[in-house]
Please model this.
Amino acid sequence: MPNTYSQQETHILEEGFNAIMRTGVKSFTVESLAGRLGMSKKTIYKYFLSKEKLVRKIAMFMTSQVEQMFNKIRENEKNPALQFIKVMEHIAKFASRAPVQRMAQLKTAYPEVWK
Model:
């Protein structure tokens, strides 16, 4: 699935993911995200109508990013053993950015997003 977000939306989603992974979803605020991005909350709400919708889009965006990377590996690497190694390397890299505790917070704070 290709990325259908504008450059500004992508920037918001990437930094939103980083913020959630740093502080946890319970401490994540649109105000702090806006401050980190150097934009107003109003600008963020122009793209994402609520914090819950923003968190949902962040989760969907990151899932899509991982899926795209796996597809790219599958297309570019024909050797199944090397495909496996590259996928595992990517999973390790992603896991280092996404601590399990932070992901568990998402499940408890936003169970509908987790589904």
Observations:
- The mean pLDDT is 89.
- The helical segments are 7-23, 30-37, 41-47, 51-76, 80-97, 100-109, 111-114.
